[in-house]
Amino acid sequence: MKKFYALLPFLGLFLIACEDDTTPIDNTTEPVEYTSGTADFSNYVAVGNSLTAGFSDNALFVAGQEASFPNMLATNFALAGGGSFSIPFMADNLGGMTLQGTPIAGNRLILAFTTDGPAPVAVSGQGSTEVSSKLSGSFNNMGVPGAKSYELLAPGYGSVAGVAMGTANPYFARFSSSESATVIGDAAAQGATFFTLWAGSNDVLLYATGGGAGTDQTGNLDPSTYSRADITDPNVYASVMSGIVQTLTANGANGAIANIPYVTDLPYFSTVPYNPIPLDAETAAYLNSMAAYGAYNAGLAQLQALNIITAEELAKRTISFSAGEGNAVVIMDEDLTDLTGYNPALINMRQATADDLLVLTSSSFIGTLADPNNPTSINGVAVPLADKWVLTPEEQLMVKTATDAYNVTISALASAYDLAFVDVNTLLGTINSSGVQLTDGSVVTSDFATGGGFSLDGVHPAPRGYAIVANAFTTAINTKFGSNLPMVNPLDYTGLYIN
């Protein structure tokens, strides 16, 4: 990282003309003296999940770890008394992992040009990171990809044996201090003088990326009964985060805490259109006939005439195709009235609308055959998309409600423990709605693959996006503690890895 300098203000230019005499102009500059204010950056520890680790393009790899926002912060902290920053580096830039030689995680994605056009594909080869080869020493970047808030407190979450049984995290298993260690225990053992905490996105994100196929566990205070695709109860989240902050501040450490972004601001949920199906006139007519969806529509109309469903639900569920572009996919929707007791053929299906969010991975599934031996079994057309491929408005509301509750907790903890508060939710919303303009006039947006803000997995920032996040942390830290740390230049970081 280059050392940043600020130009001293040029207060005036005085030209004194005395016949052939001129006064020379002093163009010299002096470096700024950076200070930590009331903070102490000498021992910085970053706690969180994949967003803290530097996860990008669906993998964790060396270049991504180097471009993590904590590493950017640590580089600038070093200008104001910060110490070394140790990272549990992966073994290579592929990102794949093995457990006793068996692959358990795939390589990172790159943009490749296929017969169907540009598409994310995994880098070829086998990553050389072996989970059972534990790293020695302590580490300042305690970001653990995939971790939910309550898992940061779970004993054995870094157990190699637990990874084999599916009860532990392979990323933490590589550098945990023992088989029974907790992430927060290992973080606290560093004796940090300053910390950043950004945790909890997975408590709603895994539900959302799974298309809402999990369960909203609001009201269930026992996380041991949750599946990983569930939404964490807000009271559980509040209790966990309070305990984490109390632990990290126990010895007087200062810190910064960030809130959780809305998933709807991520390209993972905004890239695939709800109506991507092109049809010729003959196919559209067949799909509308009584041999196909016409019978379904007629059955719905009969039940509406009997006042079993409303006219509004009839309109919502009626399926219709037309010749040309822009036909909406057919989806399953568990929130529709269950009519199978009246007619087993009247399953909970409808066509998607602009209010539905198709997940990024559905792009490679829509249009494929459910039955290779049946050319008419087209997924999303003749065969409805399962719940996991789409986040319905009702599911989006559950995600937003939980996110809002988590963010109330984060804001309250920032106030109660006098921490710098980083509003990443608003920041990512800005990137999604209008973009962030850089010094060269370019704009970083959330457009998939081209916007520069997000990586090819559609969820995690690209290095340039992480730089913008680092600047949000820096601004909050400078404001809270009176430090004068410099900003990172996002243009020093790529918006997309090309190989």
Automatic annotation (TrEMBL):
GO terms for molecular function: hydrolase activity, acting on ester bonds. PROSITE patterns: PROKAR_LIPOPROTEIN (PS51257). It comes from the Bacteria. Residues 1-19 form the signal peptide. Keywords: Signal. This is G-D-S-L family lipolytic protein.
